[in-house]
Write a structure and sequence with these properties.
Largest sheet: 6 strands, parallel
Helix content: 40-55%
Strand order of the largest sheet: 8-7-6-9-10-11
CATH architecture of one domain: 3-Layer(aba) Sandwich
Shape: globular
Radius of gyration: 20 Å
Order of helices and strands: EEEHEHEHHEHEHEEEHEHHHHH
CATH superfamily of one domain: NAD(P)-binding Rossmann-like Domain
Distance between the termini: 42 Å
CATH topology of one domain: Rossmann fold
Number of strands: 11
Length: 358
């Protein structure tokens, strides 16, 4: 039996919903971590997890990160996430997506779904046929990947500004792990900025395109973290910063889009002690969340200019985190948590006071 309340990733989550549908084969989990700032917004990850325990661990951790991400991005939204246990290439179907959409609808707006690994704009359109609690639609911001990449680019410029006093990426070498939707968009932006690229991916055709398009140096996946570079950009799956990879890490800054890059919290402290500047993942990859949030009614309809102004402001957010860590002699991971918790706790204090007054 899988423990829930005593699970090491359970962090006072408000609601965890297990969804199944025998007819379509749907097996999904929706985790709502915190809604003190507003309804939970977070993507739907479709992935062939090894087992249900792995899926539960992922959704618990990802949903908590969404709470902190929304708080740091100054959005009036809470944190949530969903996972569908399925191979997106073989098992995803319109019927399965609609069955999942019906599960979202039953939550009556407490959770708003958008894209994540394994899901697309087209999938959100399909889900939208059965629930209005969807973002990342073609009628709004569409695919949030370029927005996520833009935020990471701003984080890289902030890291360079903090380390070198200038934020130009011209001549900077970036080791980029993963050329998916976000990684590919980021590589394009980096090449435009004049950066030199070293890239890895599991797909040879994408690597060939990167070499032909940007003159990128191709590196094996298992070695990308250890190559000589100014910035290491993890843009694949999580836990890349771990006991095995940290001793071999040569880059002085880690700025990437992957979620849950630290295998364990103490790895943030290890990076700090090693003098490596880590851009906390949930802070620097908030561009996609910001973009889809601007589709919601509270923002008066999607406006790309306003959304990207907010995304570009991540530059200042990251600098504030770096300086707070420096001033308080703590890791940037802890500094980001403290900044996020400050706004969350302030809102909870107000909510408790209002409840007591009624």
């Amino acid at each position: 039996m899988t423990a829930i309340f005593s699970h090491f990733e359970h962090d006072h989550h408000e609601q965890i919903v297990f969804c199944s549908d025998a007819q379509t084969g749907l097996k999904a989990i929706i985790a709502i971590h915190d809604t003190c700032l507003g309804p939970a917004l977070g993507g739907c990850r479709i992935y062939p997890y090894c087992d249900e325990k792995e899926a539960l661990q992922d959704v618990l951790r990802l949903s908590r990160a969404m709470t902190y991400k929304a708080s740091l991005a100054n959005l009036d939204l809470g944190g949530g996430k969903s996972v569908i246990i399925a191979d997106p290439l073989r098992e995803k179907s319109p019927a399965l997506l609609k069955a999942f959409g019906q599960a979202v609808e039953r939550l009556a707006g407490r959770y708003i779904v958008a894209e994540d690994v394994g899901s697309s704009v087209e999938d959100m359109e399909m889900i939208h046929e059965v629930t209005g609690h969807v973002a990342g639609l073609s009628s709004g911001g569409g695919d949030p990947s370029p927005a996520t990449a833009r935020g990471v680019l701003m984080g890289m410029k902030a890291a360079l500004k903090y380390q070198r006093g200038q934020g130009s990426l011209k001549g900077v070498t970036v080791a980029l792990q993963g050329l998916g939707h976000v990684g590919f968009a980021l590589a394009e932006m980096l090449a435009t900025e004049g950066a030199s690229l070293k890239v890895s991916d599991v797909r040879s055709d994408v690597l060939t395109e990167a070499k032909e398009r940007w003159g990128a140096e191709i590196v094996e996946n298992k070695a990308i973290h250890a190559v000589s570079a100014d910035i290491f950009a993890p843009c694949a799956l999580g836990a890349i910063l771990n006991d095995q990879t940290l001793p071999a890490l040569k880059a002085s800054a880690i700025v990437g889009s992957a979620n849950n890059q630290l295998a364990r919290p103490e790895h943030g402290d290890m990076l700090h002690k090693a003098g490596k500047l880590y851009a906390p993942d949930y802070a620097v990859n908030a561009g996609g969340l910001i973009n889809v949030a601007h589709e919601l009614p509270d923002y008066g309809g999607y406006n790309a200019e306003k959304a990207y102004q907010k995304i570009d402001a991540l530059y200042e957010t990251m600098l504030a985190i770096f300086h707070k860590a420096d001033h308080e002699h703590i890791s940037t991971a802890k500094a980001a948590d403290l900044c996020a918790l400050e706004r969350l706790n302030h809102q909870k204090t107000i909510s408790h006071a209002l409840s007591a007054a009624e």
